Amino acid sequence: MSETVSPSGTLLQFLSWVALRPRRYGETMEAWRTSCPRLSVWEDAVTQDLVRLAGGADQGSVRVELTAAGEALIRRG
Length: 77
What we know:
CATH topology: Arc Repressor Mutant, subunit A
Distance between the termini: 23 Å
Number of domains: 1
Helix content: 40-55%
Radius of gyration: 13 Å
CATH superfamily: Winged helix-like DNA-binding domain superfamily/Winged helix DNA-binding domain
């Protein structure tokens, strides 16, 4: 039996933020990374394959993008 997990409001907020415009990895980490285990939105999004890293070899040119699963989750919202 497959279990459907409802995304947190914070996770949807994060995905919507990424979807607004191109985001650099550094900008994303500055805005969203935390050491609090209760607010692990970045880690949750990566683990659930909702975002991916794309672009250049150096950290300054790496982009954070939504995956198809991330886009679908926003639409379901």
